[in-house]
Amino acid sequence: MIHVHHLEKSRSHRILWLLEALELDYELVVYQRDNKTQQAPSSLKKIHPLGKSPVVTDGDLTIAESGAIIDYLVQRYGQGRFQPSPEETAAWVDYRYWLHYAEGSLMPLLVMQLVFAQIPKKSPWLIKPLAKGISDKVSKQFLTPQINQHLTFINEHLLANGNFAGPWPSGADIQMSFPLQAVAAVRSLEPYPAIAAFVSRIEQDAAWQRVVDRAGPLTMPGQ
User: Fold this and answer.
1) In angstroms, how far apart are the furthest CA atoms of the chain?
2) Please, where in the chain does CATH 3.40.30.10 lie?
3) Is residue 12 packed enough to be buried (19+ CB in 10 Å), middle (13-18) or exposed (0-12)?
4) What pTM, to 2 d.p., does this model score?
5) What pLDDT digit, counting tens, does each position of 169-178 carry?
6) How crowded is the C-beta side of 20, counted as CA atoms within 13 Å?
7) Deepest in the core among 7, 42, 66, 184, taking most CB within 10 A?
């Protein structure tokens, strides 16, 4: 039996989406964040030493990291679905690219944006104005231009292709779902209509709706 170790306000929902799309039975093991620190509970370290989520156990195997989990589930249970075949060279290369791009290129920027937005809120009142000034400067001069560049790049790909690679939803689409849903939660997607359509398509997907019914709606850290 597959067990998904699912932390609230984390990236686990996309793993549940893939499992629902694969129509696999699984058990959901839910963990709550600490109310003060918003960190995962130490009990997650019993499953994986880093104490992060998502983590999937399948028999004697423990698989961490969203990309590795998606790769494992698609390869073992996909029966040729959810990814292009290597013979479809361009689509296969796109699939591998977006599977790694989500966490390798896009999410670090989004996490930095979240961290810098939280710094003024967590700073002592005496230095709060200084912290806010630094945070705003970093966001304006570095983070926002970088993120906008990435969103334009993604939007153009989706305009040309409809989704990220292969049939809907491919493992790449599922991997890219969380960062784009995270963007949609904090800013208008009006300048990026193809991304908005992609996020809407996720929410209308029957397998995604089963995830929401079972695990609740996706929420983000800081919400």
Assistant:
1) 61
2) 2-83+210-215
3) buried
4) 0.90
5) 999 999 999 9
6) 21
7) 66
